[in-house]
Specification:
The protein has helices at about 15-25, 50-60, and strands at about 1-5, 30-35, 40-45. It is of the alpha+beta class. The protein is globular, with a radius of gyration of 10 Å.
Length: about 70
């Protein structure tokens, strides 16, 4: 399943690193594409979107309803 999350607080390279590590901690096989200017990340994984939303929110990157 593929989905996109809008992460308004993802603003720099460090943020991208944390988001990437968080996604990979949930699913090492996940593929993700980051669009930093748009504050968006596209994730393809067999895990639920909510699992990623919860983990990213815990790291300070709460997804908004885009």
């Amino acid at each position: 399943m593929a989905f996109e999350l809008h992460l308004p607080t993802m603003t720099c390279g460090h943020c991208v690193k944390v988001v990437t590590q968080t996604v990979q901690a949930i699913d090492p096989a996940a593929t993700l594409t980051v669009d930093l200017p748009a504050h968006a990340v596209s994730i393809e994984s067999t895990h639920s979107e909510q699992a990623f939303r919860d983990a990213l929110a815990a790291e300070g990157y709460a997804a908004s309803s885009a």
